[in-house]
Amino acid sequence: MKQYIVDAFTDRVFSGNPAAVCVMDRWPEERWMMQVAGENNLSETAFIVKEEQGYRLRWFTPGTEVELCGHATLASASKYPFRTTGRVAFIRSSPTPHHHCMLSRHGLRGRPPQIS
What we know:
Blueprint: E1 2-8, E2 17-24, H1 30-40, E3 45-51, E4 54-60, E5 65-66, H2 70-77, H3 80-85, E6 87-90, E7 99-104, E8 107-110
Parallel strand pairs: 2-3, 4-6
Antiparallel strand pairs: 1-2, 3-4, 4-5, 6-7, 7-8
């Protein structure tokens, strides 16, 4: 695992909105991801895994998995996997978990998850 602490919405260290970004080779157990998020003690920790269709994200607070986190997604996009493909697949716990979007320096394109 490679882990980064990224300040979203800023170009200065120790400002903006921090999120942990964990780049993984495979999905670990959910309990382990919860423990990492608790240890990080930030509002969100994003986990990234490369799969056949692209990179997938899951987001955790210190207490639970969340369906979507904007600043942790942007923080994740600043790390190397997305610099080459630009494709992100969001994972959710809902009955229709897969949503595909394109993240680039020009913004977000595609159909992001709809949270009700």
